[in-house]
Amino acid sequence: MVSQEKFAEVCGIHAGDGWMSKYNYEVGYGTAIYEVPYFIYVVKLYQQFFDMKFTRILWRKCVELRIQSKKSQQILQDAGFPRGKKLDNLHIPDFIKNKPKLLKPFIRGLVDTDGHAYWRKNQYGQQSLVITLTTTSKPFAKEICNALTFLGYRAQLFHYEYSKLNGRRNVFKITIMRRDCVKKYLEEIGFSNIRRWQKVVSCEEIFSKYAISKKMATFLNGLKVNRRQEPVV
What we know:
Endonuclease I-creI, 4-stranded antiparallel beta sheet, 8 strands
């Protein structure tokens, strides 16, 4: 039996790196070649909700999952996602809003696809873990910030502008950097993308500065021993 929490994570993944064609019944997801373990995780997760009868996996500069299914598109449309270009109409689905049990996996799916975890050194040479999420949709960025505040996190929203060949592009970056909030994120939301966890354990200060629980410490130590470990669907 599939769960709402898992479907909320699917919605986060789709909001990040997914698409729905408006020309046919394609539902897609793509990521970089170096994230193949996470790609496999997403494929297994999608199998729980979508009709995968007509499916292609394309290996290019990235790896793509392409599902031809009217039923699968309808599932995502019923959740509130548009066909075609999604950024102008991207929102947290109504069935997820104000529900911590569903917001957490939704945000996990977003950060796994459009986010990062990295260590930043301050002017005194001390390392701090930073969790970020990037989007080009200002309304969506504000929604996510409000959702994180609702969940008890202190998140900051930054606006950047950079040049492209066809003009300037606006980027909105949501950042969690306070130590207590980062610890809370790791304990309550975490990642399904193994590369995010590998960034976390790449610095020993995660064990000395973040007062993580024994359960989390055991999990992270296991990642250090086995860097090929994949998340369980």
